[in-house]
Write a structure and sequence with these properties.
Two copies of one chain form a homodimer. Helix content of chain A is 49%, strand content 10%. Chain A is of the alpha+beta class. Bound molecules: flavin-adenine dinucleotide (FAD) (2 copies) and calcium ion.
């Protein structure tokens, strides 16, 4: 985040000074925004940067307990500089939050500099190889040039000048969220690879006496756990690619001071970041449990995926808050559509066909009809639109009864999250399907690949219609028969995907070394790997475990009554 | 498990010999059932116990890699005896799986005995203070008396005699599952206590300029995350109590060789174990995420709850398999109901009113109608019955078309899991409501307590109707208006529970020491606790972190090009 933030928010002179030092690892930076008391609400940050005109310096300071910086990655022991986000104060007046480069440690000795307390925040669920830190600043002085000045500026006489566009500094945020969306696939795909491979090797229960036990991948319940995740993994692969393409496109526009794509891209990345991390993290845990007891071992290779990635639902915008932001954009877009204004991009469907979609019903007459991507997409589009419209109407009703807009909106916030999630799922599925349909069909192999990917897309769609069927039944868009059809199709697809499952996970091309899993080995030798890895475990270096002589043996020999003399 | 298994499966003479040694900690036992290759399928275990008549001994042996015992708790370093479940072989004939006591380590030296390899299976997701072990036996001889002989017996001339009832040995299994159901509450309640307390202290975002920031517990989305879990925690408390009562009742009957309660109790414990652990584990993670970034810290006190308890979904019967077992019982019970036979216990509703429930519709006319417990319970009862009936009819159809019963059943296994879960949820909610309605109303305080508990019950019910509404809409039992009513009621209940939330978590009466959470402190001083705990973290003993001098400083001083000379 330190380098992307410099690239996004430093002016050219600052970039020329700092980026080469970053690239040669002389400057090791950390992005210090979050504080003990404030994460999501960046405007509420309490760290101050007060301009001292007499010295042409800022005084960066932690005025209270809750203002202590908390969480910045690599800040505890590794970084020697921090980009500290702080409230700019000039002549006693506040000018909002800006970025200030503060040197934390000496270049030569790596010792912490005067006025600074920095430390590790303690053990975490995962990513414990990153030293997330805390930072307390006691009136630390930095040159005025250390405030990032691409957008807002403070000159030597203390004059503050505002950026042209209030949204310009969103660039960094959009970049980081887009990267998270693009990374999700790697996590869910690894978990699914391990689970599918193990489910081929693992056998449990004889179908009949003296028959070989069934491979667990042949149980429908196991397929229902894993194949929708396999489908989601491929979907996220395509969505990640599209996300980065849109990000690049927006970047090119921003270079020309064209911010037209930003609001749309901001809403899309927020919603997709929330939905992809939600699906990936929940999916990793489903895959882990599908391994039975052995999935509880670190050697499974799935534990670390969950522990490390689960925080992606929280950092760079907590998912609930992201959905609420996306929902606000949806409400605004719908309002434009209602009065007949044109809306473009991911929300354009809200205005389509003069909003005739409100009344439309599901057109499927048989399970096979649902294997048409447009039938699936129509359902998700209708659901999202209907949810947003229902809230908009209820809001209007409340406001016409004299309710306060903010309070009324707050009273629908659970529904707003659902609507934003439904919208994000529609746009995600649309991108998935469009990406598959664009694939070439120039050889018979390519045709086969495209066919199986289309099946995966349909499976993902049918899975969510089935498991969230209430949303499609609520307004009569579907009836129970439709839900049964889509369910039947989904079960049928499980059987169709079964023979392709191994090839589909091999297609991710993760090497054993990267998977680091005794259960997900390419060669299938899971049991000998488990035994080998366990035998090498440090606890097995000695036969007699720690504490046995001091505590356990006296108990065994003299009975449970023995008093252990404390050695403290 | 070692002691409960002895109590359940040893004969009186064996109990007299072993239990006193267990109670004085001379014998430290482990229950060694699971093997590398077999967990769920106990009949498939490969460890053998072959009777040697000439010596009146059994030879216990690990014949292959997959027969290595894997997982038994405390087996690696602590236990000196194991109850080894093995295939009994007499004169070359197999007699099924039975329990054999094998001494693993010497009483005096705690050294591993001849013919035995025992070790730690390696790091796990949680409960790493338990040394789960592996065990390889090389023709280890034990006296004949070491086979547990309460039910099946082998006498000195090698004659095998069967137990009276094939189901008698279910007793231990039922006990352990009942205990898990009773324990669930402690986990979910701790997570909710921490999350509610922190949500009172944590403030984020000003509702309007210059107003104090909002306590996050006042956001509807936050209430929707936490209050249904609070409701579930109280529900599990009552369900756990009822579970143990039924277990005791069954035990008294078993003493008199009366097995009439066993099938019912087995189905109920299986379903409840699966559902309570599912709700508790998913709920802990929801509560953890509701803490924002600080929930990712071990100091939150929620991480360990998830890591330790998440395996409860897998051990003592993997949840999917448990649901499938419950489903089999439901299908059988329904078949009896269809032909007009009487069915009792938790499934009795399937036969009620001559099965008129099939056609019944939801009677609610307004949101308030759903605050009647019987309206909520009727909905869950109908859903469960309808799901089972739908599968039974579809199965019959398939079989009448010539399908094989087992294959046909397998093709509905996803639906069977859903039906068993729906049944378990109905019986759980029924027990919750019955327990609340039984509470005394002798003082105004007791009346108030009963009222708020009833609200929690209704909230839990309305939450699941809303989030699983498709199941209630599928056959027209409800329509969209009903779902909207129950949703409106649910939102209203969130506001009603808000002022009681702190008292409700204080009611669990967990002490700070037991919660071990910087965020869930009774005194609310979360930020100073985080800072204090972090400062005491071992990583903060020295300013310069590990590896800085050797690796980081050379890089900073000479740039990223420096070659680090390996010290290996
Ligand atoms: C692994 C990890 C690495 C991190 N790395 C960095 C880093 O390098 N640099 C850095 O500066 N920070 C970092 N962070 C901090 C991170 O960015 C914040 O924790 C994150 O933004 C969430 O904010 P919060 O903790 O304030 O959550 P909160 O906002 O306190 O969220 C708590 C709860 O309140 C709810 N809530 C809050 N506001 C609202 C609202 N308006 N409406 C409805 N609900 C609301 C949330 O939904 C959530 O349920 C890191 C965090 C983690 C976990
Ligand atoms: C923390 C922990 C402690 C333990 N302690 C002990 C102990 O003290 N002693 C001991 O003996 N054991 C112990 N165990 C082992 C535990 O009892 C087993 O791991 C558990 O019973 C699950 O069995 P499994 O591993 O064979 O899972 P599997 O049966 O291999 O399950 C893997 C997957 O296959 C699916 N599956 C399997 N069969 C079917 C089917 N028929 N239909 C549909 N799906 C199916 C499951 O649903 C699951 O998704 C422990 C395990 C853990 C995690
Ligand atoms: Ca649902």
């Amino acid at each position: 985040m330190f380098i992307p933030a410099l690239e996004g928010q430093a002016d050219d002179k600052q970039k020329d000074k700092w980026l080469p030092m970053c690239r040669s690892y002389k400057v090791i930076g950390t992005y210090a925004q979050t504080e003990l008391g404030h994460g999501s609400n960046v405007r509420g940050l309490e760290t101050t940067a007060t301009f001292d005109k007499s010295k042409d310096e800022f005084i960066v300071h932690t005025p209270c307990l809750t203002a202590i910086k908390w969480w910045p990655g690599n800040m505890a022991k590794t970084a020697n500089h921090a980009l500290v986000m702080a409230q700019l104060i000039i002549d006693g007046k506040k000018y909002g939050v800006h970025g200030f480069i503060v040197q934390l440690r000496d270049f030569e000795t790596h010792k912490v500099r005067a006025g600074i307390e920095v430390g590790d925040i303690g053990p975490k669920f995962g990513i414990n190889m990153v030293d997330n830190g805390f930072l307390k600043l006691n009136h630390v002085r930095i040159p005025r040039e250390n405030m990032l000045m691409r957008f807002a500026k403070v000159d030597a006489d203390g004059t503050f000048s505002k950026p042209n566009h209030s949204k310009l500094s969103y660039g960094t945020m959009v970049f980081v969220r887009a990267t998270i969306v693009d990374t999700c696939y790697k996590y869910i795909a690894r978990a699914v690879t391990i689970a599918v491979r193990y489910s081929i090797v693992r056998r449990q229960f004889e179908p009949a006496k003296n028959q070989p036990e069934t491979q667990i991948i042949d149980y429908q319940t196991q397929q229902f756990k894993l194949f929708p995740l396999l489908a989601a993994a491929y979907g996220m692969f395509f969505v990640g690619k599209e996300m980065m393409r849109l990000y690049q496109l927006n970047n090119e526009k921003l270079q020309k001071d064209d911010v037209s794509l930003l609001p749309e891209l901001h809403a899309l990345t927020s919603g997709w970041k929330a939905l992809t991390t939600e699906i990936a993290c929940a999916g990793i845990e489903v895959a882990r449990r599908s391994l039975g007891g052995h999935g509880y071992m670190v050697f499974s290779g799935v534990i670390n995926l969950f522990q490390d990635w689960v925080s992606s639902q929280t950092y760079e915008g907590e998912n609930t808050i992201l959905y609420l932001q996306t929902a606000r954009y949806l409400l605004k877009s719908l309002q434009r559509a209602v009065v007949g204004k044109k809306i473009t991009g991911s929300v354009s469907y809200l205005g389509e066909r003069g909003m005739a979609w409100v009344e439309e019903k599901c057109a499927a007459k048989s399970p096979a009809d649902f294997s048409n991507p447009s039938v699936i997409l129509h359902a998700f589009q209708h659901r999202a639109g209907r949810m947003i419209l229902t809230i908009a109407q209820a809001l209007q009703q409340k406001i016409s009864e004299g309710a306060d807009l903010q309070a009324a909106t707050g009273s629908f916030s659970v529904d707003l999250v659902s609507a934003a999630r439904a919208h994000s799922m529609y746009t995600l599925l649309k991108t998935y399907s469009d990406s598959v349909e664009k694939l070439p069909e120039t050889t018979s192999d390519l045709v086969a690949v495209k066919q199986i990917l289309r099946k995966l897309f349909i499976l993902m769609g049918s899975y969510y219609i089935e498991t969230e069927s209430g949303d499609f039944l609520y307004d009569g868009y579907m009836n129970g028969k439709h839900v049964q059809m889509v369910t039947d199709l989904g079960r049928d697809l499980l059987s169709q995907i079964r023979p392709e499952a191994v090839a589909l996970v091999d297609g991710f091309d993760f090497h054993d070394h990267f998977l680091n899993s005794a259960l997900g080995r390419y060669d299938g030798k899971v049991y000998s790997a488990l035994l080998e890895w366990a035998r090498e475990s440090p606890l097995n270096n000695s036969d007699i475990g720690p504490g046995v002589k001091e505590f356990l043996l006296p108990t065994i020999t003299h009975g449970g009554e023995v008093r252990i003399v404390s050695r403290m």
